[in-house]
Amino acid sequence: MLEFDGLRKSFGANQVLDGVSFAVRPGSMFGFCGSNGAGKTTTMRIAMGLVRPDGGEVRWQGRALDQDGRRRIGYMPEERGLYPKMKVGDQITYFGRLHGMDGRAAATAAAEWVERLGLAERRNDAVEKLSLGNQQRVQLAAALVSRPEVLILDEPFSGLDPLGVDSLAEALLDQARAGVPVVFSSHQLELVERLCDSVGILARGRMVATGTVEELRRREAGRLLRVVVPDAAPDWAAQLGGVRVVSERAGDTVLELTDGTDDQAVLAAALRTGRVTHFAWQQPTLVELFREAVAVPTTQEVAA
Amino acid sequence: MSGQSTLSSASLVRLVAAREIATRIRDKNFVISSIVIIVILLGALGFQIAISGGDDESRIGLVGGGAGLEQALGQQGDALDVDVTVVPLDDEAAARAALEDDDVDGVLLADGAEPELLVEESAGGPLQAIVQGAVGQLALADRLAEAGVADLDLPEVGVRALDPDAEQDDQRIGAAILGVSMLYGLLILFGQFVAQGVVEEKSSRVVELLLATMKPWQLLAGKILGLGLLGLGQIVVIAVVGVGGAVGFGLVDVPGEVVGTAIAVVAWFVLGYALYASIFAVGASLVSRQEDLGTVLMPTTLVLVASYVVGIQAAGDPGGTLARITSLVPGLSPLVMPVRQAAGDVALWETALAVVLMLVAIALVVRLGGRVYAGALLRTGGRTKLREALAAERA
User: What is the pLDDT of residues B329-352, one digit of tens each?
Assistant: First the structure.
């Protein structure tokens, strides 16, 4: 279990993190969402020992992370960084060695990754001569070369074309399937929704929502039911008990049900009007959940 | 987890150092600058040989004349500090051939009524003086003999040296100046390498990835150590080539003294490099772009230039107050003390004090600078102030 426990951090008067806690199971993918400046990068940097927290700690397998523990983490910083004049193969090997591999193992693993990411022909080129997309691949290889036990990736998908997104997603899913807990931050919420087992939404220095997307939907979205009854009169649902009509247009009706209202009674009422072409609980997208979660409660409070 | 283990500080530092060395020796600029330094050194040696060795020897052909003339030429040579070799030749034709072959510098034709000096273009340097002196001496002896004066005993002038070691001192000071100049050049060069490396890691943001696996001081130590070993290697090669060349070509009389000076220069390089490289690295950590490097390094570079100037001045007046004081001041001492040591009037306690002060300064810079470095490394964009860096490290 990778646990972030009660992280607090302020830079001067600016309280960036105010008790951030969440846990990631081995083999699961955790999507870390939040507005710009919400503190995602600071949280990840604390895990990597780059920022000292004012309080709280990050644990892996029950032990607080130290330098040796961090060596078993693959990390991709938000600001990509490689030695521009170093050759691709040498560079990946070097990062393998910094993560504790011996020279031969690092060289072998680097060669494998170069091959796997389709960079075999560029292996002896300086990184600065590569396209941005290829530099991203080298960056990924530098994070994965040492076969890390944990992956922490800050905005790994930013700047990738759709094909690049797909191949990176595939690589991360491979890692998760192999039992590695993967934490990544992203603004591409459709992607997070598609890939992640669980999601955390950070706002104003706190985790305002964590859980599976399904759980968030249930918790955040209320009980909205969409019923499409083309032949019904506009006010067909007005008389039903425990039901509020949110919208109605040519039979396409969105209803909000109070707790304890039987959705089957609603279905029966709908069937009485004629054909029912659609009957389903409304699925709010993660984007909608996100908007709701990070919405500033009062006008005075400014998102950190 | 195959082939993986925990890394000690030493192995991390070694990894960083090995990368620095591998990167530099593949760098064209470094290779070219190293070759240029060796070429300049060999050029300087060659120049020394040319100006000091050119007049040492003179080959004079002799046609006719007796054993007396040959002996007289040798004596004149001794008086003028020229090693004269007399080559007996048969006639003028042989003399011309020998001249054309550059076998001799000039030929004295002593078989005719009037002695004549045959040369290719002109009688350069001491050649004419030697020949004139020898012929004159013989003629004088002949006339005296004719006049009945024999066994003329001319008094010989004895030489009493007030400072018999002066020439030796000059050689050692010369070696020290040369050594200090090389030292100055290498300190600037390798200080720049360290600074550029620090900024490169910052501007390319690779430093964040590095610091996820190691502590700032390990990165700093590896970088300084790696480049330092390379610099040390270079100055040792220079010392060996320089001293070896000077001794081998007979430019110095007492090899032991010059070797001692060379060792002192190398030792002071180690101390000077440790101090300046640390300061350069810390300064460089405050900026994020190579363009801003000049500004933050300027004060330190000025101190280096000043100590070089003082060092050269100390060669002229090694016992002066300025030299005595500056040879103890940390930062200045690496470029002044070797010169004073070469001049030979440094008490042991002075050297010891200079070394101790230098070590204290290095310890302070590494301790304080390490904190600045750690605080400034992850602050990109613009220039970080010293105070901010220290505060960030504590945060």
Answer: 999 999 999 888 887 778 889 999
Rounded-to-integer distance, Cα B343 and Cα B321, Å: 15
Interface contact B211-A101, CB threshold 8 A: no
Shortest Cα–Cα distance, A37 to chain B (Å): 16
According to DSSP H, which parts of B249-291 are helical? Answer: 255-285
Pairing assessment for the beta strands A252-257 and A73-76 based on DSSP bridges: unpaired
In this complex, which of A81, A95, A102 lies closest to B205 when CB atoms are compared?
A: A81
Q: For the segment B143-189, what is each residue's pLDDT rounded down to a tens digit?
A: 877 877 766 666 666 666 666 556 666 777 777 788 888 889 889 98
Task: With CB atoms and an 8 Å threshold, state whether A68 touches B6.
Answer: yes
Q: Are B255 and B46 in contact (CB under 8 A)?
A: no
Burial A168-190 (b: 16+ CB within 10 A, else e): bbebbeebbeeebbbbbbbebbe
* DSSP summary character for residue B154: P
Q: In what order do the strands lie in the sheet with A243-249?
A: A243-249, A252-257, A224-228, A278-281
DSSP B121-150: S---TTHHHHHHHHHHHHHHHHHHHHTT--
Q: How many beta-carbon contacts under 8 Å exist across A and B?
A: 85
Q: Is B61 exposed, middle or buried (0-12, 13-18, 19+ CB in 10 A)?
A: buried
Which residues 197-236 on chain B approach chain A with CB closer than 8 angstroms?
A: 200-201, 204-215
The answer to whether residue B262 scores a pLDDT higher than 90 is no
Cβ-defined contact of B214 to A86 (cutoff 8 Å): no
Contacts of A149 in chain B (CB under 8 A): 1
Of A81-95, A194-208, B101-115, give the lowest mean pLDDT range.
B101-115
Note the pLDDT of residue A302: 44
- Please indicate whether, in this complex, the C-beta atoms of B215 and A52 are within 8 angstroms of each other: no
Burial of B88 (0-12, 13-18, 19+ CB in 10 A): exposed
Nearest by CB to residue B4, choosing from A11, A81, A100, is A100
Cβ pair B5:A100 closer than 8 A: yes
* Contact: A83, B204; criterion CB under 8 Å: yes
* Rounded average pLDDT over A43-66: 92
Residues B194-208 pLDDT 10s: 999 999 998 888 999
Whether B257 and B171 have beta carbons less than 8 Å apart is answered as yes
Q: Residue A174: its pLDDT value, please?
A: 93
Q: How far A171 CA lies from chain B's nearest CA (Å)?
A: 18
Partner-chain contact B1 A81, CB within 8 Å: no
Closest residue in chain A to residue B219, using alpha carbons only: A98
Residues B357-363 have a mean pLDDT of 93
**Phi and psi (nearest 5°) for B247?**
-70, -45
**Considering only alpha carbons, which residue of chain A is nearest residue B211?**
A50
Q: What structural domains and CATH numbers belong to chain B?
A: 56-146 (3.40.190.10), 165-394 (no CATH)
* pLDDT at residue B152 in the model: 60
